[in-house]
Amino acid sequence: MNLQAGVDYDEERVKACLESAGFGKRLAKLEAGLETKLGKDFGIEGIDVSGGEAQKIALARALYKDTDFIILDEPTAALDPIAEYEVYSRMDEITKGKTAVFISHRLSSCRFCQDIVVFHQGQLIQQGSHDRLIENPYGKYYELWHAQAKYYTD
Length: 154
Known about the structure:
two-stranded parallel ribbon; two-stranded antiparallel sheet; alpha+beta
């Protein structure tokens, strides 16, 4: 599965990271399991994964490294809404004990964050929780939240 650069790896930890990232069900269906080659470039037995699956594998790689600080840039952009919800509903568990920075333009993915920072034209213009930021009808977060929400309510 190529979560770690090297021949030696902790098989159980790899499986746990793939499961946490939402790739566990797909892994269980792979005939070669963790030995599955990703991509046809590595042989005809290789498999191509979808953009969402590739994103889950990338998240699993970040989790496997087990650092205290993790940066996730649009970690669910290629996922469908249900898969995105599943990942974000487990995000506290996934990042437990770590400082996690999420970069996102999709504000629905920010609701679970403890602290949100809003940048505009390279400047930090707002900071706070979702509930606090949404209370300010003159703030950029409020403006962006409602601009995106209208696509789900109209």
